[in-house]
Design goal:
The termini are far apart. The protein contains five helices and twelve strands. It has two domains: 190 residues, BirA Bifunctional Protein, domain 2 (2-Layer Sandwich), CATH 3.30.930.10; 46 residues, Roll (SH3 type barrels), CATH 2.30.30.100. It is of the alpha+beta class. The protein is globular. The structure holds biotin.
Length: 252
């Protein structure tokens, strides 16, 4: 198809919008189907984690994509999604956020939004379900996440408008998705992501991937969005999966 044409389906409650969108993709849903729920009872996060999704506290939605670009470039779609959320929050609330590789949106070093991309095989070929969860308010956060998570309301002092955020994220996402599928679009996404992320280059980080732990300094992105990390021994390692944590220097 030439242009993404969003069609929005709304639910009061779902186990997971990603699950619902994947099921609809298997049943033949067209690219652009967007599933939104007021709450998720089994919200899914990256690395098999749970995404806590209480009613009215967040924007939870998933979009079915049928990308034309080669599958090796699909990781760039999650970077494009992070760019879209970053830009939509800036435009809507003048809220300047950071992007932690690959696609966490942070404000004041706390997580404001998570993005989960999952592939699904359908009779029309492999599809991508792109799930986005944005914390709107923190009132329903369980105590254990207060330290690490934040919300649009906490960061802006304003009562967030779910519909406006959804609309602006969709517009920004559509633009980035079309860009990605144009000539040199991948390079443009990488460049724009790097401008907005303090994690792109020169950041001391630890990456945990299962039992494997790597420490070093970030040195930009590979063509497929993988993170280049220089170890203290000067070796460049390419990271394609894992949990990134900033290592802060202790000032005494
Ligand atoms: C992460 O771990 O950072 C990714 C979280 C993604 C959460 C969103 S909420 C909407 C969609 N449905 C899900 O079950 N997960 C994603």
């Amino acid at each position: 198809m030439s242009e993404l044409a969003p069609q929005i389906l709304r639910f009061d409650s779902l186990p997971s919008t990603n699950l619902e969108a994947a099921q609809r993709a298997i049943e033949g849903a067209a690219e652009g189907l967007c599933v939104v729920a007021s709450e998720q009872t089994a919200g899914r996060g990256r690395l098999q984690r749970q995404w806590i999704s209480p009613k009215g506290s967040g924007l939870y939605f998933s979009i079915v994509l049928r990308p034309r670009v080669h599958q090796s470039s699909w990781p760039l779609i999650t970077l494009a999604a992070a760019l879209a959320v970053h830009d939509a929050l800036l435009e809507t609330y003048s809220l300047k956020t950071d992007i932690k590789w690959p696609n966490d949106i942070l404000s004041n070093n706390r997580k404001l939004c998570g993005i989960l991309a999952e592939t699904v095989d359908t009779t029309q070929g492999r599809a991508l379900v792109l799930g986005i969860g944005i914390n709107l308010t923190s009132s329903a956060f369980p105590p254990e996440v207060h330290e690490i998570a934040t919300s649009v309301q906490l960061e802006t002092g304003k009562v967030p408008n779910l519909e406006i955020i959804l609309r602006n994220v969709m517009i920004a996402l559509l633009r980035r998705y079309e860009m990605l599928q144009s000539v040199s679009g991948g390079e443009e996404i990488l460049r724009e992501w790097s401008v907005r992320s303090s994690y792109a280059s020169g950041k001391r980080i630890r990456v945990a991937n299962g039992q494997e732990v790597l420490e070093g300094t970030t040195r930009g992105l590979e063509i497929d969005g993988a993170l280049r990390v220089e170890t203290d021994e000067g070796e460049i390692r390419i990271v394609r999966a894992g949990d990134v944590m900033e290592l802060r220097t202790l000032v005494v």
